[in-house]
Write a structure and sequence with these properties.
The structure holds 2 protein chains of 2 kinds. Chain A has 2 domains: 117 residues, UreE, C-terminal domain (Alpha-Beta Plaits, 2-Layer Sandwich), CATH 3.30.70; 178 residues, Cytidine Deaminase, domain 2 (3-Layer(aba) Sandwich). In chain A, 30% of the residues lie in helices and 17% in strands. Chain A has 12 helices and 11 strands. Chain A is elongated. Chain B is an alpha/beta fold. Chain B is 44% helix and 18% strand. In chain B, strands 2-1-3-4-5 form a 5-stranded mixed β-sheet. In chain B, helix 1 packs parallel to helix 7. The radius of gyration of chain B is 15 Å and the shape is globular. In chain B, 49% of the residues are buried. At the A-B interface, helix 9 and helix 12 of A face helix 3, helix 5, helix 6 and helix 8 of B.
């Protein structure tokens, strides 16, 4: 609970050093985070490099394997995965009708080597794979930045950290240490809705479920009956924020400057210029919104946030039944029709 | 239990007539329907108001009214729903520990069995039977998605 407190005001030079002690870590799919599995493959060693051209030409036609690897490593040439061969390698190559010259070259100093089964997505994976066999690598700069944490600007990082602090404060000071969630329109950034789950809540009444309903309230919707009192202002701009949370924000030196309020539903359904659907069409469910949660959401809540089309999910604490990191990574299921990004606030020393 | 699929289909058609994705659900306790509902997503601007959740909330209200313990009651509930529950609903039903789920057609976009093995993630297995009058349930969905999709952003703002 102490971990997100602002550090005591240090000399200005030290602040820079202390700030990154909270890291915002992207939770990426296994394709990006895990080591790439290896497969055994046959390689041969050519007598001279002069043979390369003709050997590669025939190989690429007759044994078109390993598109993600370089076929040649010095004088060593990859033939095929060992699983490809049912009888002997020699018989297999003969059946493929290689020219006599190439066949002789390919059968020299046959070895079984371990090679990456798929191409690397990130530089860290690429570097690990190099010791096995040279790979092709086309870096994806956005994913590289997600992995090394350079995707957020200093201003964005400061705001995210502030939301993390706010979650802890709201939980301890307003919601009896129970989970809370905040939904933010990142264009402000402006707080659209805040919800906490109650001590006596039923099995399925978790804070993200209330949160998406409170967002709906800011769009002339909302289905849940709740005991919360909401901010009463003209229009529905603030109607996703319960009164007690709003009053806490406005009475707190640390958070009073935060913007609050949603863009109100538009009268016209015609799109206006914008880079994303939120800017083009205006608020619709949680499209384009960020969701900050004290606790990693369970599977039900994680899917509720998919249905709600949230843009990014940030959470502080893992949950035993969490479905974004602990038990499952719902956001990495390719079949789903919407994918949000997921980030966890971690302390520096938590990271290996 | 499969006989109750007719009740669920009635709710699905009602949802369709209200401009919602046509999915209907009933909760059966003993041999009696104690909760019924269709999707209410568009009317409340809340993407979680699926038919199953309408029934869960109605069941909780039923328990309060009758002074029955919800936990024990859910263990006796048969969920009869026209479409395979999505990952969210399936997770909720597994966590609540209902007795069984009987559904019509599969949900290959986000089904709680077809796309993700919800039981494995939640750590609880319950009996699930699919394919009960699935063609009728599927026909309703196909009919719906052929027309304008009212859940598209531009149309969602239209006032009645």
């Amino acid at each position: 609970m102490e971990l997100l407190e602002e550090p005591a005001p240090p000399p200005s030079k030290r602040l820079k050093r202390l700030e990154p002690s909270i890291r915002i870590k992207a939770i990426l799919s296994d394709d990006y985070s895990k080591d790439i599995p290896l497969v055994p493959a046959y390689s041969c060693q050519l007598e001279s490099k002069q043979q390369l051209q003709i050997v590669i030409k025939e190989l690429s036609q007759k044994l078109p394997h390993f598109q993600h690897l370089k076929r040649v490593n010095d004088r060593n040439v990859l033939l095929c995965p060992t699983s490809e061969i049912e009888d002997t390698l020699e018989q297999h190559l003969e059946r493929l009708a290689f020219s006599e010259e190439v066949l002789q070259a390919l059968l020299r100093q046959i070895q079984v080597v371990e090679v990456p089964s798929i191409g690397p997505r990130l530089r860290t994976q690429y570097e690990k794979m190099l010791k096995y066999w040279p790979c092709k690598f086309h870096p994806d700069h956005y994913y590289e930045s997600l992995q090394n944490g350079s995707n957020f600007s200093a201003t964005q990082r400061t705001f995210h950290n502030q939301m993390a602090q706010l979650l802890e404060k709201l939980s301890t000071e307003i919601n009896s240490k129970q989970p809370v969630g905040i939904c933010v329109d990142p264009r402000g950034p402006s707080i659209v809705a805040i919800a906490g789950s109650q001590m006596d809540s039923k099995n399925h009444e978790h804070c993200p479920m209330s949160l998406v309903d409170f967002v709906a309230r800011s769009q002339k919707g909302g289905a849940l009956t709740t005991t919360e009192q909401f901010v009463e202002e003209p229009g529905e701009k603030l109607s996703g924020i319960p009164k007690n949370y709003y009053e806490y924000l406005k009475g707190s030196d640390a958070f009073v400057h935060l913007l609050c309020g949603a863009e109100v539903s538009r009268q016209s359904s015609d799109p206006i210029a914008g880079t994303d659907n939120l800017s083009k069409y205006g608020p619709y469910l949680c499209t384009g919104y960020d969701v900050y949660l004290l606790q990693e959401p369970c599977l039900m809540c994680s899917m509720a946030l998919v249905h709600s089309r949230a843009k990014r999910i940030f959470f502080l604490q893992t949950s035993d039944n969490g479905a974004l990191l602990t038990r499952f990574q719902l956001h990495t299921v390719k079949e789903l029709n919407h994918h949000y990004e997921v980030f966890q606030f971690t302390r520096e020393q938590d990271i290996s | 239990m499969a006989a109750f699929m007719e009740d669920a289909l009635v709710e699905a058609r009602r949802a369709r007539d209200a401009g919602e994705v046509p999915v209907g659900c009933v909760f059966v306790y003993g041999d009696k329907v104690i909760a019924r509902g269709g999707n209410e997503v568009n009317v409340y601007r809340n993407a979680t108001r699926h038919a199953e959740f309408i029934c869960i909330d109605a069941t909780l209200a039923y328990c309060r009214e009758k002074h029955l313990p919800a936990r024990q009651l859910f263990a006796e509930i048969s969920v009869v729903v026209t479409v395979e529950p999505c990952i969210m609903c399936s997770a909720a039903l597994h966590t609540l520990g209902v007795k069984e789920i009987i559904y019509g057609c599969e949900n290959d976009r986000f089904g709680g069995k077809t796309v993700v093995d919800v039981a494995a993630v939640v750590g609880q297995r319950i009996s699930i039977i699919g394919g009960v009058r699935g063609d009728e349930a599927m026909a309703l969905l196909k009919e719906f998605y052929k027309g304008d999709n009212p859940s598209a952003p531009t149309l969602a703002k239209k006032k009645k």
